[in-house]
Amino acid sequence: MLSNGNDKPYGYYGFRFYKDAIGEFANIWNVGWEIRTSTDYDWNGRTREESGAYIFQYTLNGEGRIEYGGKAHSLKAGDAFIVKVPGDHRYFFPETSETWEFMFLTLVGEKAEACWDYLIQEIGHIAKIPPDAAMIQLLRKMNHEAAEGLIQDGYVASARAYEFIMESYRYAKNLENRQVLLPEPIVNAQLFMQSYFSEPITLEDISEHVNLSRYYFIQQFRKYTGATPKQHLVKIRMEKAIELLSHTDLSIKDIAKQVGYEHPNYFSKAFRKSVGESAGRFRENIRQVPLNRVVID
Question: The HTH araC/xylS-type domain covers which part of the protein (predicted)?
Answer without folding.
Answer: 187-285
